[in-house]
């Protein structure tokens, strides 16, 4: 069992930097209980030791990445569901959602969480003063922790049973991927009452584990007695699972105001060249687009001045010029009409072009005809909608713009209206 756990731990080292992991004992940094440490070198070498004060750590290890297992009894794990993904709203809602489980005032507690999907969260609640004491003690020793994780999540978990291990006078129990608790470890062979109660609650909720894996059990623990008393197989195992780094657990207490600043600064430094390139690209792109717009605007103004001058020479009596192209077209039409020369939008030319199409389309009855704004409007009665579409296509084929304005069926006959203008239909 030892080898797979050690291999798993060493897989989390970086190729060019070592990783230092610490296991903090209960009550630390007060007292003289030693802190266990593991160092995973970039070359795969693993070193292990214990120190009473962090200042006693080898100097060369303090510059490495530091991950920390915190005392399991100092953190409560819980899972809740919140109908929001907003970090600010989650931070506000957590104290109220866990109010029945909290032992202290919400203001004195630190809430760290991880989304699990579907609005579900795993939440770790730790006394703010304890977390601050851990961080301050490590900084005083020249260590900048990258992550702190409750030791409950250090225990191996296979998804079928529960895992247990002693930690000083306490027993750590991991009951799920993100759940567990601690209870007092009896000095004799008796089963802890808290463990027995937890198993009874699990059985009532149909979540009973298949077995218990007891890692590094004390000599006084009678596993066979535990199996009989708990009516569950209890397996004794040996394993150095503490050697893995807490980032393998995928959870850290260092959130909100305790978030480490170094990773962010390192990420920003790594992205700085890309940011400079992006900024230069944006500036050049904006400058190019601005230059193109300025050139096109200059061309537009020059062409408009030319159009206005042409309009003034052609119609010297005009005083107000808003749209020279449109005004010139209208004035030319007016001149043609005034001189007896028909234009395409006049009544007779339009009717002359439209009439053959209407006459050639079968089952078309003309009800009325009106003319306005250089367009003819035909009120028609046809056999069906297909005939109306056939007529529209025939008008378009004669170089007219034909549009069906209205069509309604009554007793198998379609009454509709088609408007015709000079030009082809779109």
How would you describe the overall organization of this protein?
The structure is a single chain. With 426 residues, the protein is of the alpha+beta class. It folds into three domains: 2-260, Nucleotidyltransferase, domain 5, CATH 3.30.420; 264-339; 347-422, Gyrase A, domain 2 (2-Layer Sandwich), CATH 3.30.1360. The chain has nine helices and 17 strands. It has helices spanning 2-10, 87-97, 128-140, 193-204, 223-230, 262-314, 324-338, 347-360, 385-397, and strands spanning 19-23, 35-40, 46-51, 65-70, 75-81, 109-117, 120-127, 145-150, 162-167, 170-176, 179-184, 212-215, 234-237, 364-372, 375-382, 400-410, 413-422. Helix 5 (223-230) links the parallel strand 12 (212-215) and strand 13. Mean pLDDT is 84; it is low at 1-15.
Low-confidence residue ranges: 1-15
Structural class: alpha+beta
Overall number of strands: 17
* Helix proportion: 25-40%
Radius of gyration: 42 Å
What is the CATH architecture term of the largest domain? 2-Layer Sandwich
Task: Give the strand content.
Answer: 25-35%
State the CATH class of the largest domain: Alpha Beta
Order of helices and strands: HEEEEEHEEHEEEEHEHEHHHEEHEE
Number of helices: 9
The total number of structural domains is 3
Name the shape in a single word. Answer: elongated
Euclidean distance between termini CA atoms: 79 Å
Mean pLDDT: 84
Spatial strand order of the main sheet: 3-2-1-4-8
Largest sheet: 5 strands, mixed
Give me the CATH fold name of the largest domain. Answer: Nucleotidyltransferase, domain 5
């Amino acid at each position: 069992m030892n080898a797979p756990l050690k291999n798993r731990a060493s897989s989390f080292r970086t190729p060019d930097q070592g990783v230092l992991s610490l296991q903090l004992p209960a009550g630390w940094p007060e007292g003289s209980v030693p802190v266990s440490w593991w160092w995973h070198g970039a070359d795969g070498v693993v070193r292990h030791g214990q120190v009473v004060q962090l200042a006693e750590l080898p100097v060369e290890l303090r510059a490495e990445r530091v991950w920390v297992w915190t005392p399991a009894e100092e953190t409560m794990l819980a899972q809740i569901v919140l109908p929001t993904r907003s970090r600010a709203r989650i931070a506000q809602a957590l104290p109220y959602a866990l109010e029945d489980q909290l032992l202290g005032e919400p203001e004195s507690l630190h809430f760290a969480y991880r989304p699990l999907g579907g609005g579900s969260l795993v939440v770790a609640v730790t006394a703010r003063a304890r977390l601050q004491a851990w961080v301050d003690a490590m900084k005083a020793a020249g260590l900048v922790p990258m992550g702190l994780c409750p030791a409950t999540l250090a225990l191996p978990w296979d998804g079928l049973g529960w895992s247990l291990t002693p930690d000083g006078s306490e027993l750590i129990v991991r009951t799920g991927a993100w759940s567990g608790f601690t209870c007092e470890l009896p000095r004799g062979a008796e089963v802890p009452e808290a463990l027995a109660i937890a198993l009874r609650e699990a059985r009532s909720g149909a979540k009973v584990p298949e077995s218990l894996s007891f890692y590094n059990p004390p000599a006084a623990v009678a596993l066979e007695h535990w199996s009989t008393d708990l009516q569950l197989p209890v397996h004794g195992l040996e394993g150095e699972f503490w050697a893995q780094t807490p980032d393998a657990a995928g959870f850290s207490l260092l959130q909100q105001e305790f978030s480490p600043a170094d990773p962010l600064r390192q990420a920003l430094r790594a992205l700085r060249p890309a940011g400079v390139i992006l900024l230069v690209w944006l500036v050049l792109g904006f400058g190019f687009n601005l230059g193109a717009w300025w050139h096109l605007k200059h061309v537009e103004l020059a062409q408009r001045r030319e159009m206005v001058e042409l309009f003034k020479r052609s119609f010297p009596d005009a005083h107000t010029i808003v749209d020279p192209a449109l005004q010139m077209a209208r004035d030319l039409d007016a001149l043609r009409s005034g001189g007896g020369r028909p234009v395409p939008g006049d009544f007779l030319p339009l009717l002359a072009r439209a009439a053959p199409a209407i006459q050639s389309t079968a089952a078309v009855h003309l009800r009325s005809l009106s003319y306005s704004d250089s367009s003819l409007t035909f009120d028609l009665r046809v056999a069906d909608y297909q005939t109306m579409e056939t007529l529209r296509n025939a008008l378009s084929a004669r170089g007219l713009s034909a549009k069906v304005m209205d069509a309604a069926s009554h007793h198998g006959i379609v009454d509709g209206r088609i408007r015709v203008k000079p030009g082809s239909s779109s």
